[in-house]
Design a protein that fits this description.
It holds the Pfam family Allantoicase. Its EC number is 3.5.3.4. This protein is mainly β. It folds into two domains: 174 residues, Jelly Rolls, CATH 2.60.120; 157 residues, Sandwich (Jelly Rolls). The strands form four sheets. Strands 12, 13, 14, 15, 16, 17, 18 and 19 form an eight-stranded antiparallel beta sheet that branches. Strands 1, 5, 6, 7, 8, 9 and 11 form a seven-stranded antiparallel beta sheet that branches. A hairpin with a 5-residue loop joins strand 15 and strand 16.
Length: 346
């Protein structure tokens, strides 16, 4: 039976797909550090060898010897989007005889643009513990819920340091958390649903082929695998995905993108807003959509007694009866309450 971890519903803030970067590593003799944050699952070919030995889809350091007792290998990751960390996954997939005996993870809040070497030279007291040194297993996903102590619980994390004690190989590092973008740049008309602005998926009826977090990711999808695809429905229902917006906002227009979904796009879609009080507001009525197409819908809803659209905190996209979405963009402006939410996270 597969265990369920609530923190996995939060986006992976370290992912290369969100512009995360492995900016420094103490060593990468066998396998390069950049593999740590690749969005795809680690692969393995038992017959693939290179000049440095067995090729692994992960980060692997050389074996430490007697002259390096007391030293550990480490890698520093700059998160693509800073945030409050809810959980971490350290995956040692395929590393069976060369995984680290122990692992640890530390966090840093640093808004300066420092090089990897400058970050590595920071004093230890600038870093705070997210995962204390713990025993690791080979070929295993370590799901680690984060409960920071003291004021660390309120800290916004911009970088993480992954330690291998003392050396070995790790295939992937996932850092799941609530995005906390800089409020100075969340002004005017913005994509209220975008993960880089603080949006996140909170509900989804079906994610058989791919995770719906991808529909609010940075940039455009490069293929069908870069969006959300559900299984084929064989009943009278329909699938949907709900996105919590970065903050309360007034929606002006919506983009519903089915790019790359040629034979498995929805037949129809409907988009509904949800207010802070739980009331539903129709943003786009049920309407036909086309395969492999960027659709734009103006939102005409206006709250009674106001001059603008009804403030909402979430949006639900219904697809009929099923089908894939490449991207969902929700363009609008934050209300005063929404702006305060952004500032409080920062």
């Amino acid at each position: 039976m597969t265990e369920h971890y609530d923190f996995l519903s939060y986006p992976d803030l370290a992912s290369r797909a969100l512009a995360g970067s492995v900016v420094w590593a103490s060593d990468e003799s066998f396998a390069e550090r950049e593999n740590l944050i690749m969005p795809h699952e680690p692969a393995f070919d038992p017959n693939e060898f290179g000049n440095k030995g067995k090729v692994y889809d992960g980060w692997e350091t050389r074996r430490r010897r007697h002259d390096e007792v007391g030293e550990n290998d480490a890698a520093i990751v700059r998160l693509g989007v800073p945030g409050h960390i809810k959980g971490i996954v350290v995956d040692t997939a395929w590393f069976k005889g060369n995984y680290p005996p122990q692992i640890a993870v530390h966090g840093l809040t640093c808004d300066e643009y420092l090089t990897g070497e400058e970050l590595a030279a920071l004093p230890d007291d600038r870093w705070f513990t997210l995962v204390a040194p713990m025993d690791a297993k080979g070929d295993h996903k370590h799901h680690l819920e984060i409960f920071p102590a003291g004021d660390a619980a309120a800290r916004r994390v911009t970088h993480v340091k992954l330690e291998m004690i003392p050396d070995g190989g790790i295939s992937r590092l996932r850092v799941h958390g609530q995005p906390a973008p800089d409020p100075r740049f969340i002004t005017g008309t913005i994509d209220l649903a975008a993960v880089e602005n603080g949006g996140r998926v909170t509900e989804c009826t079906n994610m058989f082929y791919s995770h719906p977090n991808q529909i609010i990711s940075i940039g455009r999808a490069h293929n069908m695998g870069g969006g959300w695809e559900n299984a084929r429905r064989r009943d009278d229902g329909n699938d949907s995905v709900t996105v919590q917006l970065a903050g309360e906002g007034r929606v002006r227009w919506i983009e519903f993108d089915t790019s790359y979904f040629v034979f498995n796009a929805p037949g129809d879609v409907k988009l509904t807003g949800v207010t802070a009080g739980g009331e539903e507001v129709e943003l786009v009525g049920k309407t036909r959509v086309l395969p492999d197409t960027r659709h734009r819908f103006a939102v005409s809803d206006t709250a009674e007694g106001t001059t603008g659209p009804t403030p909402i905190v979430a949006v639900r996209a219904d697809v009929y009866p099923d089908g894939g979405i490449s991207r969902l963009r929700v363009w609008g402006e934050l209300t005063d309450n929404g702006q305060l939410d952004i500032e409080s996270r920062w």
